[in-house]
Amino acid sequence: MTNKQNERAILSISRASLGALAVQSESAMKGIRIMFYYAPLAVFAGLLVLLAFYHLDKEYGGIMEVLDRRHKEMESAV
User: Fold this and answer.
1) What distance lies between CA 7 and its chain's CA centroid?
2) From CA 27, how far away is CA 18, in angstroms rounded?
3) Using CA atoms, how far apart are residues 68 and 22, in angstroms rounded to an integer?
4) For the chain, does the N or the C end have fewer beta carbons within 10 angstroms?
5) What average pLDDT does this structure show over 34-61?
6) Is residue 63 scored above 90 in pLDDT?
7) pTM over 0.90
């Protein structure tokens, strides 16, 4: 290999390592699709399931009653 060929080989390797490739590999594209389409979809679905079991609206009145009672007890104790 001549010096010119060595320089070209080194340049092509350095460009590839810097992400200058015009076309991404299929495995890279698959990873990008998973991270930008399917992962957020899975997180959203998981949150919907969690919110289905989150019944704060039903418990809010009772919570506020307990807090008001505690507040009144602390005021009367002082």
Assistant:
1) 42
2) 18
3) 65
4) C
5) 92
6) yes
7) no
Selection from 41, 6, 64 nearest residue 72 by Cα: 64
- CB within 8 A of 32, min separation 6: which ones? 24
- Alpha carbon distance 70, 77 (integer Å): 10
Can you tell me which residue has the tokens 């699709």? Answer: 33
pLDDT of 21 reads 58
Helix (H) / strand (E) containing 5 = helix 3-17
Cα-Cα-Cα-Cα torsion 15, 19, 20, 24, nearest 10 degrees, comes to: 130
Cα separation, 40 vs 32, whole angstroms: 12
Quick check: 24 and 32 in contact, CB under 8 A? yes
Query: In this structure, what token pair is assigned to residue 35?
Result: 């991270």
Instruction: Give the pLDDT mean for 39-59.
Output: 92
